[in-house]
Amino acid sequence: MYKLYGRNTEYGVQKISLWVDSLHPDDRARCERELQDAITGVRIFDTTFRILTPSGETRYLKAVAGSILDHAGVTVEMFGVNFDVTESVLAAQKQAQLLDELTRINGELNTFTYSASHDLKSPLRGIDQLASWITEDLGDDINDQTKEHLRLMRSRIDRMERLLGDLLAYSRVGRSVDDAVSVNTYALVDDIYDLCVSNKNFTLYRAENMPIVVTYKVPLELVFRNLISNVVKHHDKASGNIWISAEEKGNFIEFFVRDDGPGVSAEHQDRVFGMFQTLRPRDEIEGSGIGLALVKKSIESVGGRVKLESNGLNGCTFRFTWPSIVVAK
Length: 329
Description:
A hairpin with a 2-residue loop joins β7 and β8. The protein has helices at 15-22, 25-39, 86-138, 144-172, 185-196, 217-234, 291-301; strands at 45-52, 58-69, 75-84, 181-184, 202-206, 212-215, 240-249, 252-259, 306-309, 317-323. The mean pLDDT is 83. The chain folds into three domains: 9-84, Beta-Lactamase (2-Layer Sandwich); 93-172, Helix Hairpins; 181-323, 2-Layer Sandwich (Heat Shock Protein 90). The strands form three sheets. The protein has a five-stranded mixed sheet. It has a three-stranded antiparallel sheet with strand order 1-2-3, sandwiched between helices. It has a two-stranded antiparallel sheet with strand order 4-6. By secondary structure, the protein is of the alpha+beta class.
């Protein structure tokens, strides 16, 4: 006890006096009140407080004490133990400070992302409208080279708009405020296919045992939408096939999205999940390069994992796990 309080037994200070005199001024009234409550039997003495040592150092101690009562039930003596919890308290304070700072920074980033997305889209739409007017004004007098330049300009404006939208979606992943709902993944995949695959030369095969999960619908929908759209976008033929199935894996469902496209070589399989990554030139294929990064972040936000499997010659299989029941954070 004396060692914890930075004192020497030679001073002959009684323990209760040592405790009271060492209490931090801001904690003294509370601690004395809690001690009195313990003496009168109102509560057990179990508290954390600060002390000031003779050297001026502040320490955090935890004290737990019990009472010895006489035949009348009156406290005649107390006994207990003190623990030095300075390191754990300071660590918790530091953690709270870092979390507050991280929350503040994330809030600023979210505000910036939303503002940038909104403010940049307006001039982009104006440029696109201007290109459209130029095309209309020139009419039949427009030459092939100018027509191609205007087409490329509008194509890149469209790409930039989608990039801004995807950046906004990426910043929002993992912060769903919606309630978890029951989602029939068979019907979900069917709806996404009808929405995303206008070219019905691509055939969708769904397993009959596609599960019903209790989850946030929007993130799961985003995952399937990007994976199905990618098949059509990156396929090397005008027609193809998409197979989607699922298996139970404990508390998770493992989904498989497989295609018969050109495949992805081993050295590029991790790269595809990075931001702004495309394996073909941007002018050959429209995309922001964020789709699979969105997929990965959405899956990991609910505790799942995603993996790409391909022999690099024909076909890809995206495997990802998703909890059968999402637990609210």
